[in-house]
Amino acid sequence: MIPLAAYAHRLSVRPGETIKFQVANATGETVTARLVRVICSDANPAGPGILTEAIDAKVEKLAEPGPAEVLRGSFAIVDGLDPWLSGASFTFVCRVFPTRLGGRRQALLARLEEDRQRGFALMLTNDGRLRGSMGSGEAFVNIDTEKALTERCWHRVWVRFDAAARTFHVGFSRIEGDANAFDGFEPIAGGVSLGDRESPAADGPLLMAAANHQSPNAHFNGKLEGPALYGQALSDGEIHSYLRGQEPAGAVAKWDFAEGVAGSRIVDVGPNAIHGRLVNTPARGMTGAQWSGREMCFRHAPTEYGAIHFHEDDIDDCNWPTTFQWKVPDGTRSSVYALLLTAGAAEENVPFHVVPPKGRATADIAVLASTFTYTIYANHARPEWDRDPKWQAAWREQTAAWGGYPHNPGEHREYGLSTYNYHTDGSGISIASWQRPMLNVRIGYLTYPYEEIRASGLRHFPADSHLNAWLETKGYDYDIITDWELHHEGTDLLKRYRVVLTGSHPEYHTGQMLDALEAYRNSGGRFCYLGGNGFYWKIALSPERDGVIEIRRGEGGIRAWAAEPGEYYNQFDGGYGGLWRRNGRPPQHLCGVGFTAQGNFLGSYYRKRAQAADPRVAWIFDGVEEETFGDHGLSGHGAAGFELDRTDKRLGTPEHAIVLASSENHPPDAPWVLVPEEMLTHLVTWPGEPARDLIRADLTFFECPNGGAVFSTGSITFCGSLVTNDFNNDVSRILDNVVRRFLDPVPFEMPRRPPSPK
C-alpha cells in the first residue's frame, strides 16, 4: 500500500458545508495538512507547470491518521439465525455459478469463528470441490465431494446436519441446459459422522460469499441464487427433488435476490423475514440458473434474474475514519482546491471542487467538471503497465523527472480498479466509487509517457486544468460546478449562467444531466463542448450511497469489456444501460457532434471549411488567418486527436449547423479505428461513407432557440492546445472569440429555413 493515501467523502462542496478527508498513514510520522487552490495540474515543464495558490484556511485535525486496511470483496450478512443454527438439525440449499475456481478456498455460506474452531461453513476448496466444515471448539471436521464444480456452470449445492443422527452431508449436482435437469451425479452417498461436540453454533452473523465476519476472507467469485434454510435435515428424497428443481416446502428463510435489486438489502421472502444486507456492492440484476433468454430486463422476468455476482475485489468504500475536515467559509471562491498532506518524506494530494452557494452564481461562466467521468475512470490500470516493461519504466522516469504524482494504479490495485479494468474472475468492473483513493485524480498525475509523442500525456482531471489555467490567464471570472450538482439540481443550476463550458472528456452522464443541458441550451444558454467522446455512456447512481456509480457496457460502443447477454440493465435504476446512442439520445442531438473514431494519444490540426466564411460564424476566426490551425499543444501535440467527434444529421445534428473546420492527418499507423457502432461490415459503414472520411473532428457551431448557441470542438485534445506559447496561439484565439461573443447578451438568431419546394 501507499505509505500516505487519502480521499474525500465528496468531490464538491459549498460554502458553509464541511468536506471530510479520510487518511491512511503508515509512515509513523506526523501528518500535516494545508489547502491550496489549483490552477494547473500539468507537471510538464514545457507548459505552465503545476500552479497552485496558497489560501488562508484552517483545516481541522480530528485525529492523527494511522495505518488503515482496504477491505475489498463483496458478500452478504444475515443476522438473527440463532434459533436455527445453534445445534439443531438444518439444511441449506443454494444455486451456485463459480467464475474463478482453484488457487484458494472460497466460502459460499459460513458462520465461523475460526480462531475458536466453532461454527460451520459450505466452501469451495483450492481445487474446486465442495467442502462442508463443522467445528467442535477444538477442531473442524471437514467433508469434501469427490468431484469439483465446473467453472461458469450452474450447480445446486446443499449442506445437511442431522443433530439426532450426528451426521453431516454435503453435495451438488450440475444444472444441465434445462434448469430442472441435473447431470446424474449422485450427491447423497457418503457423509461424515460427528461426535457430541460438533455444532453449527457460533457467535456472529451468517455470511454469504465470504467467511469470518470480524475480518472477512475467503471471498467467493461467482453468482449465488436462491439460498434457503430449512429447520430440519431434509430427507434424501427431498434433496433429490431439490436437485430436479422442485424446492421442498417449509423453508424457515428463503432469500430472493430478485427483490430490491437497486439496494443493499437481501430480502427473505420466507415466514420469518430474516433480511440481510450486502457489503461492497456486488452486481445485481444478474441472470440466474433459470434465465431463458426470452427477456433481457430483470424487471420483466424476476424469476430468471435471481442471482447476485460477488467478486473478491469489489469495493464501494474504504470506510477509513475521518481525520481532517474543512468547513468552507462563506465567500470562498468557486474553484478547484486540493488538500496537501505530508508525513515525513511522503506526500499526498486530494483535489476537490468548491461550487457556488445553492441558488446563486458568482460568475457568468460555469465550468462543468466531469466528476462522474473521473470516478468511472478512477484507478484505471492501463494494460501497458503489465505488458510493456519499457512503457512502465518510461512512465516512472518521466514522472520523476517532472516531479509528478508517483503512484500508478497498475502498481496499487489494492484500492480497487476502474470500470475500464476486469475483476480477477475476468468479468468487467461495473461499479465505481469515489469513497477510496483515486490515484489518477491527482495533481501531477500523467497517463502516458513519451513526451516526444504524447506531450504531457494527460487525461481527465489533470487535463481539464488546461482550461482552468486558460480562463485564469485570460482574466475570465468563472464558477466550477460538477456532475453531482447537475444531476441533482438540473436546469435550476444552469439557468443562472450565460455560458457553460465542458472540459476535455465529459463522457458519462445520467438522463437528468442530459435533460438539464438540453433545456439550458434551448432556453437561451450558450454551451461550449470542448472535448471529444462526450455524452457517450449512460450511467446510474446508487440510491443509497453517494459516490457509487454504475455502468453496464452493453451491445455496442468502443469499450474495455462487454456485459454478458441479458445483463444490460442497470441495477441502480432498472434502466437499459450502454450507449446513449442506443438509448435514442446520440451526442449529436445535444451538441451537434458525436464519437466517431479513436487512435493513439496523438494530435493533429484542423483545416477550415468554406462555411467558415459565412457571416454567421466568421467572427469565430477573427485574428486567425491561416487555413489550418491547432498543430501544437500539450495533449498529443495537436488540437485534434485521440478521440474524435463528427456531425451527422441522421443522429441529430441540426440542419442549420455549420462545420467550421475538420481535422486531417490521422494516419492509419496511429492506428485509427472507427467506433464499432459506425461499422456494419468490413466494407460498409453506418453512414455509408468510406471509413477514412469518418475519421475526423468537426469544429461545429449552431444557434438555438431563445438566443442560445452551441460551439463544439469534437476533439479530446483541444484544450491541451490552449496553453501553447503562454496561451497566445490560434486555438486560444478561437476560444477567446467564442467565449466573448457567448458572454454578449445580444441573442443569436436562428437562421430562417428556406421555403419548401412546391
Brief account:
The chain has 758 residues and is α+β, with helices and mostly antiparallel strands. It is 14% helix and 30% strand.
Verbal overview:
The protein has 758 residues and is α+β, with helices and mostly antiparallel strands. It has 3 domains: 4-70 and 321-353, Immunoglobulin-like, CATH 2.60.40; 75-310, Jelly Rolls (Sandwich), CATH 2.60.120; 361-384 and 413-538 and 580-743, Class I glutamine amidotransferase (GATase) domain (Rossmann fold, 3-Layer(aba) Sandwich). It has a 16-stranded antiparallel beta sheet that branches.
Secondary-structure map with pairings?
Blueprint: E1 4-8, E2 12-13, E3 18-25, E4 32-40, E5 51-54, E6 60-61, E7 75-78, E8 90-98, E9 106-113, E10 118-124, E11 129-135, E12 140-148, E13 155-162, E14 167-174, E15 192-193, E16 206-208, E17 222-230, H1 236-243, E18 251-256, E19 265-268, E20 276-279, E21 283-286, E22 307-310, E23 322-327, E24 335-343, E25 346-354, E26 365-369, H2 371-377, H3 383-387, H4 389-402, E27 431-433, H5 451-454, H6 460-474, E28 478-482, H7 483-489, H8 491-494, E29 499-502, E30 508-509, H9 511-522, E31 526-529, E32 537-541, E33 548-551, H10 587-591, E34 593-604, E35 606-608, E36 628-629, E37 640-647, E38 658-663, E39 673-674, H11 691-694, E40 698-703, E41 709-712, H12 724-727, H13 730-743
Parallel strand pairs: 2-25, 26-28, 26-29, 29-31, 30-32, 31-41
Antiparallel strand pairs: 1-3, 3-23, 4-5, 4-24, 6-23, 7-16, 7-20, 8-13, 8-17, 9-10, 9-16, 10-11, 11-12, 13-14, 14-15, 17-18, 17-22, 18-19, 19-20, 21-22, 24-25, 27-33, 32-33, 34-37, 34-39, 35-36, 35-38, 38-40, 40-41
